[in-house]
Amino acid sequence: xxxxxxxxxxxxxxxxxxxxxxxxxxxxxxxxxxxxxxxxxxxxxxxxxxxxxxxxxxxxxxxxxxxxxxxxxxxxxxxxxxxxxxxxxxxxxxxxxxxxxxxxxxxxxxxxxxxxxxxxxxxxxxxxxxxxxxxxxxxxxxxxxxxxxxxxxxxxxxxxxxxxxxxxxxxxxxxxxxxxxxxxxxxxxxxxxxxxxxxxxxxxxxxxxxxxxxxxxxxxxxxxxxxxxxxxxxxxxxxxxxxxxxxxxxxxxxxxxxxxxxxxxxxxxxxxxxxxxxxxxxxxxxxxxxxxxxxxxxxxxxxxxxxxxxxxxxxxxxxxxxxxxxxxxxxxxxxxxxxxxxxxxxxxxxxxxxxxxxxxxxxxxxxxxxxxxxxxxxxxxxxxxxxxxxxxx
Length: 393
What we know:
Layout: H1 2-32, E1 38-40, E2 43-45, H2 68-88, H3 96-100, H4 116-119, E3 128-133, H5 139-148, E4 158-162, H6 167-172, E5 177-179, H7 188-204, E6 209-214, E7 218-219, H8 221-228, E8 238-240, E9 248-251, E10 259-262, E11 271-274, H9 275-285, H10 289-297, H11 301-312, E12 318-319, E13 343-344, E14 347-349, E15 352-354, H12 370-377
Parallel strand pairs: 3-4, 3-6, 4-5, 8-12
Antiparallel strand pairs: 1-2, 6-11, 7-13, 8-11, 9-10, 14-15
């Protein structure tokens, strides 16, 4: 009987100890979330300057971090952003794992481009870097046409990459004319030279999206923004449209006898690359490396971009059918489809015109039809109000 009482007392004491330890543990956790803890040079410190030693604190030096309470606010912001993205998305559910990665603290020299406060903000026009590739002999006609139409909406977001100085054009673009010092020819190396400067200039900016077009391309600016709102700029996105029905096949320069295949978005239709993917391209593209890769595989600039993304990085091209180039039958597009398209182009094959059949100016005054497309999409613009919307023949 005495032994039983003694064992009962021991069990009771053990139970009291366990309850006490549990209370202490709970208090430690509550304190770790309290506002009295402040980021310090070597971790979290309390208001008296003493570093807590409770569970969950690192003793080694760490960078300044935010209290747990602020992290909870970021998580709440994540759910708000997720709902916003769901509203704009039309291509299916959002990758929750990818979007969750926004909550991670950015590191490295590009941390400012992934600042949490800016990550949770919806993309706007000011987040888009639009590059237009041209050459000196097209400044007076092609570039003048683009400046009068779609570039007038996004003059501050658009940069012109050419091969000669032009003070007049530089003034019209608010100083956004960049002389690449590349050759004025249409050779493979000249094209890759300009693309290398385009990429490096984008990387020096803090913009979220790199969108490239040629000087014979019209951009439907609202639709471009609507497209980009569907995607997370911190993830790996390569948006565009191929001009061929199957991926390019070639022998692997690094593995003799082996064949590789990859898709590329044709530059004539335009393409967009997210900041997240552009960062991963740096080992192969930054500092003029695009020219090196281009010379190695002996393919043009848009193919080289596809090679870097599709083969070297193993990332997929997301095909966007509302991008259009002169390599397709543009006359098949119907006016009722125009407002949903992102880019348009034009070309001439001998005496045959490959142009969009859009009402507006006559062919003599608008042979490319880009001016008519502009007025068809935005009829309220002053210079478009008096145009008769008749179909071209």
